[in-house]
Amino acid sequence: MKLKISMTIVAMAVFITLNAQFSMTGVVRNAETKEPLSRAHVLVNNQLKAEVTNKKGEFSFNGLKAGTYVIHVSYMGFETANETIVVKGNQQVEIFLTPKAILSDEVVVSATRADGKTPTTFQDISKNDIRKANDARNITSVIDQAVSVVTTSDAGTGIGNVGYRLRGTDETRINVTIDGVPLNDPESQGAWFVNLPDFASSVDNLQIQRGVGTSSNGAAAFGASMNFQTLKFQPKAYAEINEVAGSFNTFKHNVNFGTGLLDGKISVDGRLSKITSDGYMDRSAANLNSSSLAVSYFGKKNMIKFMMLTGKEKTDQSWDGVPSNVLDTNRTFNGIGGYYDANGQKKYYANEIDNYSQTRYHLTFAHEFNSKLNLTAAAFYTRGYGYYEQYKDNVKYKKYGLSDQIIGMDTLKKTDLVRRKFLDNHFYGLTLSTTYKPNSKLSATLGGGANNYEGDHYGKIIWMQYSGNMPSEFDYYKGAGNKQDVNVYGKVNYQLWEKLNLWADVQVRNIVYKITGTDGDLRDISQTHNWTFVNPKAGLSYDINPSNQVYFSYAVANREPTRSNLVEAVDSLRPTPETLNDFELGYHFISKKLIVNTNLYYMDYKNQLVYTGEINDVGASFMKNVEKSHRAGIEISAIWQPIRQFRWQANATFSQNKIQNFTEFVDDWDTWGQRDTLIGTTNIALSPDVIAASTITYLPISTLELSLQTKYVGNQYIDNSSSSDRMLDAYLVNNLILRYSFKPKFVKEISLFFSMNNIFNQMYVANAWIYSYYEGGERKAEDGYFPQAGRNFMGGISIKL
Questions:
Q1: Coil/strand/helix, residue 761
Q2: pTM score of the predicted model
Q3: Which of 92, 191, 323, 400 would disulfide-bridge 476, Cβ 3.0–4.6 Å?
Q4: What's the angle, vertex CA 430, arms to CA 429 and CA 434, rounded to 5?
Q5: What is the pLDDT of residues 612-667, one digit of tens each?
Q6: Distance in angstroms (rounded) separating the CA atoms of residues 80 and 99
Q7: CA 648 – CA 707 distance, rounded (Å)
């Protein structure tokens, strides 16, 4: 009996011990000075549960069972530490981080990025997630699963010309930087990733800030910003070969290489890429080439990095889309370049292409004066040159500034011709920032930049059926743009007390923009503009406890009109700058197995530029300021990882996107005038009320990963009339991805992937345009829809040497 009682007591003791929960508290310190490190990141066993040390360098974890844990501690400027801790009871630990022997290259982007204390809405995408998404598609494959993102592709494959929207705002309203250097084209204000093929292979991480976000360089963030950091140096030499093949005769060849750290100070990294695809749409092929080269010098207090990014794209034009009356019977139809020969047979011009090359040069310098003060500066130069070529049949000579042709007794007023529209540009400037952190409570940044853009726009006729009187070296139009942009910003984070952080940010920006010459319709477009904007931002974040945080921010952004906004408008209705007042209220929850981020946003626009249907003096539609409009919604994202092998990431956006007091104008072909209709409150075009994404990942073994990606986009109106007759249907798309890796003796690692995209063969359309008119008293339309590919596959192999 005594033996049974003893065994029972022992069993109960073992049970209690195995199921007891303990706490782990600790301090993170500088190994050299022994000072506590505030805001160090502490992670346990690579689980979701993470802590950020307080101003005393302290952290704590509760609810730990007895066992062995690996504590992962990271802090910018210090070597990452991995400490193995055996927990048998409540544990106290002290972790020392060693300052890096070289200046961290993370300092390059720190001035324009938000961190865990910044009260703004943002999402970080890691190097690992970028590598998984990086196949042969454009950068949109990396951001497609991000919160509030909708992507589309002219060719239907994600290769070549692509489009993306964040919270309904398009790429001309999204600020994009690479290592803090502006990417957006100053005139169009768009960031065109077709000019940087396979750019994802050069990216280490990405931060997407939704709304206005923090001050940055370049174009205004008028709905979102994307901040890319290029690959960090690798301490050891490496080489990697990537081969991808897929549907539509798609191929990608990629080589990455690096020397590692030579003599403890210098590294050289490079990449060569080539992507080809026939495209899903008819005659939508892409031939894309790119390369990158980075030469870096690292000292303990200094870093110098020279980087070159080159891209050359040659893509067939498929940007007209498919007319609605053809969509159901031939959804890959492409009418661009069509003409009728002398026998009345329909032909297509074979060289209807977009041909453009771009090379970017960055020279970055960073210096750490001491542990409290650092400086980052960058000089950059971007060279772009190219054209798009088009066959035009039966066009009037006078439309190209030429007189009619007289042949014998006949006067010819029209001809067939081939034209090229050129863009020849230079973009160069400087960025500068300095950050001061005197203690754990205060962080202040002063930064800014100055840049200059010079762009020549001109058109040439390279062939004409009857060209007797065309002058040699003839430019049928020629215009130029010169844009100078200077901005200065200051940011302050101040921890008022342990749980409350205050943030203030103000930017002053001045733009001088001069346009000269003529446009493609031969109008004189000469004009000069000078704008000065003040963009204040402020907010606060409050740590309720280690698992819960709330924040609120208010930010103002001002945006100047684009080149097309200015040259297409009627002189008497020249567009004025737009203003955005952005309110963000957010909540973060984090536990060992679950992270939830949710936020409410209200983006109140004044003088937003939208299409109303009004036309200029040559009959072209232009964007007009509307007094009041807004975007409002709730965004929810979550990561759930109940066990190491299973992970579910999901997000959803529910929004309303409205214009108040909207009047629609529609051409009347019967009267050669326009009909106007007061609609009142209406929906903003191409702004779905619901966007959702989900990725379920399962690892049956450590080297095999299975993922199911799901994307849902709700109904989208094609124009601002809110008519269901002009609406894109909602769509739901699923992709299945398999990844497997192993480490044979002859190379470091071999990784394989296979993706079946759109596995249920959804016939969906992601984008469209429409031109409405009245004829015979009936409303009609010319339109173009952009179908995306049905079921398709892609597979690849990566070999690390």
A1: coil
A2: 0.92
A3: 400
A4: 165
A5: 999 887 778 899 999 999 999 999 999 999 998 999 999 999 999 999 999 999 99
A6: 9
A7: 10
